[in-house]
UniProtKB/TrEMBL annotation:
<dbReference type="GO" id="GO:1901137">
    <property type="term" value="P:carbohydrate derivative biosynthetic process"/>
</dbReference>
<dbReference type="GO" id="GO:0005975">
    <property type="term" value="P:carbohydrate metabolic process"/>
</dbReference>
<dbReference type="Pfam" id="PF03033">
    <property type="entry name" value="Glyco_transf_28"/>
</dbReference>
<protein>
    <submittedName>
        <fullName>Undecaprenyldiphospho-muramoylpentapeptide beta-N-acetylglucosaminyltransferase</fullName>
    </submittedName>
</protein>
<keyword id="KW-0328">Glycosyltransferase</keyword>
<keyword id="KW-0808">Transferase</keyword>
<dbReference type="GO" id="GO:0050511">
    <property type="term" value="F:undecaprenyldiphospho-muramoylpentapeptide beta-N-acetylglucosaminyltransferase activity"/>
</dbReference>
<dbReference type="InterPro" id="IPR004276">
    <property type="entry name" value="GlycoTrans_28_N"/>
</dbReference>
<feature type="domain" description="Glycosyltransferase family 28 N-terminal">
    <location>
        <begin position="9"/>
        <end position="128"/>
    </location>
</feature>
């Protein structure tokens, strides 16, 4: 790739249906000379799997609400805001040229963080 190396941040987590397609795209772009980082959660499969593929990963704290009770639902706006702040700080450090959302809870606050920084967001929906 000529000129400055392009940077991609992949946002994907939770299940193989999100993570494995994200890894495929990441490897393809790495082969084209892109620098790739991952945004995920520390307690899901991406935490172990992504580094094994030679991709650096950053974590935010976000999870689903189903079955967590009324208190968790009441605190959801605060948790989402905090996750947005975490994702925004990570993106400010990495400065991606584009952010790819492949699914999972991390893609919500991560996508909003990218949008708030003026970073293009590409969403991929592989369910169908």
């Amino acid at each position: 790739m000529s000129g400055q190396e392009k940077r991609l941040m992949v946002m994907a987590g939770g299940t193989g249906g999100h993570v494995f397609p994200g890894l495929a795209v990441a490897h393809h772009l790495m082969d084209q000379g892109w620098q790739v980082r991952w945004l995920g959660t520390a307690d899901r499969m991406e935490a172990d799997l992504v580094p094994k593929h030679g991709i650096e990963i950053d974590f935010i704290q976000i999870s689903g609400l189903r079955g967590k009770g009324l208190k968790a639902q009441m605190l959801a706006p605060v948790r989402i805001f905090n996750a947005w702040r975490q994702a925004r700080a990570i993106m400010q450090r990495f400065q991606p040229d584009v952010v790819l959302g492949m699914g999972g809870y991390v893609s919500g606050p991560g996508g909003l963080a990218a949008w708030s920084l003026g970073i293009p967001v590409v969403l991929h929906e592989q369910n169908g």
